[in-house]
Amino acid sequence: MKLELKKISKFFPGIKALQKVDFKLKDNSIHALLGENGAGKSTLVKILCGVYQPDEGKIFLNNIEHNITNPLESLSLGISAIHQESVMFDELSVTENIFIGNHITKPNNLVDWQQMERKTKELLGNLEADIRPNEKIKDLSIAQRHIVQISRSLIHDADIVIMDEPTASLSQKEIDELYSIIRNLKKQNKSIIFISHKLDEIMEVCDEFTVLRDGEFINTDLITNTNKDKLVTYMVGREIDQIFPKKQVKIEQEIFNVKNLYKKTQFKNINFNLRKKEILGFYGLVGSGRTEIMKTIFGINKYDEGEVFFKGKKLKIRKPNDAIQNGIVYLSEERQNLGMTGLMSVKDNINMAVMDKNSDYLIINQLKEIRNAEELQDKLNIKVSYWSQLAQSLSGGNQQKTVIAKWLSTKPEILILDEPTKGIDVKSKSAVHEFMGELVDTGMSIIMISSELTEILGMCDRVVVMYKGLVKNILDVSNTTSEEIVKLASGE
Amino acid sequence: MIKKIITSRDFILFAIIVFGVVVVGIANPFFVKPSSLSDVLTDTSILIILALSQMLVILIRAIDLSVASNLALSGMLISLLSTIYPELPVIFFILLSCSIGTFLGVLNGVSIAILKVPFIVTTLGTLSIYRGLIYFVSDGKQVYSSEFSEDFLALIHYKFLSLSFLFWIAVAVFILMYILLNHTRFGRNLYSLGGNPDAAKYIGINENKYIILAYSLSGFFAGLCGYLWVARYSVASTQIAIGFELTVISACVVGGISVMGGVGTVIGCTLGALLIGFIRNALPAVDISQFWQLAISGAIILIAIIINTKTEQRKEKTIMVE
């Protein structure tokens, strides 16, 4: 047994984050750690990384008991974690990010930049990554950042690699590359703890699984002994009949049309239309220009050529407010940064975009705000304990709903959703999907960018497949296969 | 590559300084005589040293407001001691000054890292405390030039390659800082700690240790400058270097040290100090009234910062190759 956790408990004021959790990691195994947001996965990971110390329980590594009291100890025991984006150093180079905390030094104790750069080149070459060692992290795509993080754990010669949602922002091709890296790690006698919300990939890549729910251990077994439905049941504690409850609606006339949109170095020949009550998917690799097109339509970025028509009328969108006034809104992928203000209350966040509508003679009418928030909170089932609760204290799913509520306040006709379910748990995800169905039923049209193929196939009517700034094809979802879409998206 | 260098912050700062020297040189040819320029460099040396040591602290998202008071207190203590024991070698006083400064710096660091008093509160507090202690130890009196031994004052005025010893000390500190920040683990970890404190914790960087070390170094150089200041101006009083911490911080900011932490170069910081030193010397040289000097310094600092921000703006990534 490579790693064994026995009866681990961790308490925070008022919260039992983990209660007597058992976890066993075998040699040469890819072990899925499953659970909804708030189930205790990240607490468990933080305990393994030495960031938290357990209040009860024991940790055994190769059958020897260890107390991991700080992150350095965890690293020296051969445990390395690949976290989500937040643990990179944006202003530092790729080389330095890989070697950080572990700089190679010359005999005179000075940092050996040349050797570090050489090793970085070698490492990135082995991973077949097209990244220059002296590039700054802030200039890299999310997929490239992941590769840098993986390189970092390779440098540490880690025995146990923890991957926290490594594929959350990657597209299919990048995910496949990541899988082959993971399988390669396994061959080198490393064990991997794999945290993901995507059940397909867990079924595909993992050997074993452990499910946590509300800080408690629920089940552990071989992947071959289970299936997706069972896993979902373990996680949510009840059956979810359909993960993608697409409501059947009758699609009406065209209301939105983009013609020959062009922006230098970004995208070219972008032509597509959107019909009333339609959900139009945008699929492609991360960095294929999907987000850039939507930001342009929404007026955040400018375009060089092309025309945008809304209900047959040519639109001139120069700034986001122009789009909002016309009933077009865009929900960013980065909900934390661009979607909401964490230090403001849920109510204030919901009303942020409609302050003028809620005001009487320039004075904000609190009653109108509360009414609006209440109505949307009801509709979206946002869980708040009290009105002034800060948005940052909500779970990922409820944060996403808050952002949606903010935009619904503006009564839009076209909703552009950029990765709306990225990194949120199964239950919230299915709520967002259900809600999308309801919205189109009331006459709204939706454009959804997603990197999750099952989501595209389950939710959309048509899908625009992009590759390197070009529209490869627009397919009818009922008339295509996932293979066809993946092929187009990888440029074939 | 060349374009990258030309648009870099450091190069722009350098260009501004050269341009300024040329303009002032046209208005007042006396200013660009080698001896005058050498005076400007001497005059800016202490600012360079303090800006570089302040940079260590700013890199980890903090600020040390107590440097000028630290400098003044260290300077006053060794001055008082030198009047009692004039026969002791100068090097003793220099080391003592550095030790006192380091001790005062450690106090800051411990207060921030261990007692968790926010850095602004801590250093604002010690700014007053250290300044207040000067009155206490000196009884509010001055130590005049005649009371110092000759050696005590002479050292920094020795010339090498017609530049003062004081300036060469600044050069040494520059080289030391360059190596420290670019070629040692300590320096690189300061960048990572300032760039992303949470992530730094994950890779096992002990934040408290670095806070204390950074403030200790800031204190050490404040102590060094305590001696340098007293020796240069041949006087130790309760008023020396009062308000100088703001000049030091301006130099850092103009030099592109981000107060958000984790960003800035030793070269940039030095150029920032040189620019401010140049402005302070050039304005009187072209006969601008005292009244305007402050306003113009302020405006130039703002302009430098605006240029910095412009060069920092991100470019879009290329998606499509045409």
Question: Could you explain the architecture of this structure?
Answer:
Chain A has 492 residues and is α/β, with parallel strands linked by helices. Chain A has two domains: 3-236, Rossmann fold (3-Layer(aba) Sandwich), CATH 3.40.50; 254-489, Rossmann fold, CATH 3.40.50.300. Chain A contains 17 helices and 22 strands. Chain A is 33% helix and 26% strand. Chain A has a six-stranded mixed beta sheet with strand order 6-7-8-3-9-10, with helices on both faces. In chain A, strands 16-19-20-13-21-22 form a six-stranded mixed beta sheet, with helices on both faces. Chain A has a four-stranded antiparallel beta sheet with strand order 2-1-4-5, with no helix packed on it. With 322 residues, chain B is mostly helical. In chain B, 73% of the residues lie in helices and 1% in strands. In chain B, strands 1-2 form a two-stranded antiparallel ribbon. In chain B, a hairpin with a 2-residue loop joins strand 1 (159-160) and strand 2. Chain B starts with a helix and ends in a 10-residue tail after the last helix. The mean pLDDT of chain B is 87. The chains are: A alpha/beta (492), B mainly alpha (322). The A-B interface holds A 49-51, 70-75, 81, 83, 86-92, 96, 100-103, 105, 109-111, 113, 138-139, 141, 264-268, 287-289, 292, 468-470 and B 179, 182-185, 188-189, 191-192, 195-196, 198-205, 262-263, 314, 316-322.
Q: What is the terminal-to-terminal distance of chain A?
A: 44 Å
Shape of chain A: globular
CATH class of the largest domain in chain A: Alpha Beta
Q: What proportion of the residues of chain A is helical, as a percent range?
A: 25-40%
Any idea what the shape of chain B is? globular
What assembly state would you assign to the polypeptide chains in this entry? heterodimer
- Lateral arrangement of strands in the main beta sheet of chain B: 1-2
Write down the secondary-structure element order of chain B.
Answer: HHHHHHHEEHHHHHHH
What is the radius of gyration of chain B computed over CA atoms, rounded to a whole number of angstroms? Answer: 20 Å
Helix content of chain B: over 70%
Beta-strand percentage of chain A? 25-35%
Radius of gyration of chain A: 24 Å
User: How many alpha or pi helices of chain B?
Assistant: 14
Any low-confidence stretches of chain A, pLDDT <50, length ≥5? none
